[in-house]
Specification:
The chain has 11 helices and 7 strands. It is of the alpha+beta class.
Length: about 325
Amino acid sequence: MAYRIGQLMVLLLMLAAPAAAQQLVDKIVAVVNGEMITLGEINAQLAELRDQLPLQPSPQAQEAMLQQVRESLLQARISEILIKNEIERLKLTVDPADVESRIRAFREEHDLTEDELRTQLALQGKTRAQLMEEIKQDILKSQLINYMVHRKVVVTDQEIDEFIASGGVARSTALPSTASSPAAAVNTTRVRIAVIMVKDEATANRVYKDVTGGKMSFADAARQFSVGPAAEDGGDMGELALVDLGAPLRNALEGLAPGDVSKPFRLEADMALVQLQARGAASSPAQAPSHLGSNYDREAIRAQLQKTKTEALFLEFLDRLKRKALIQINW
């Protein structure tokens, strides 16, 4: 009898072990107005960011950095729940035509075809559907702000003049959404790169051989062969945050020194080569001259200032939502 009881106890322990492990993975780390956020959910998001995070000098420093990112992800998830609840309460919606209108305006402003836009997105590891969702969320944010302040955020001509005269940021060619990754908080590396994109592997290999063999420069090869963005500028993509690049591009840059060219790699339906031109920490944005010049698109600057104002108001609004909400955090 004692033997059979012992067997039963061992069986019960074996059955309980997976359940205990699952409970650990699904530990509730926060409750927001009754909605639970689990550690498993946060760790799943963290896993998607792993290859964007810098390697720390010790295991302790690495874990401290990972915990910092976990906390950023948790705060982002809390904000997401509060925003979702408020959108549902106010019954706000976005017409898909408004999203398409923004994309079309961006393409026209920067003289991009639909294929070139998709290529730009591929360089960032994004799809068009993801861009549409980000723009939709931006529009919903604006609607929330308009509801909160009962008026639209306005940027005056005087504010534009002061912005340029004081050395503001020049016109940006960024995609029409600035959603950032929590990885950006711990990885400030920026790179200046040039890209060549071709349709087939044979052409990519031939271009790689000619460039690395000194037969032609990377810029000349881009002008002659590339079907990707900025081909007429030698494929020069300018300075970008490393975390904003798609995984294929980040992987291709790994181990390259300034001036080096990657081996051909697959980028969506095309083959690509990337040249690392410079690598460094985050730098200050380009400064405008202290006079009003004809090279400045005032409407682009107005949109930039409007977005900055809207984001500031939105953060204030979000802070008020958090103070009113029932939030319990338990790491």
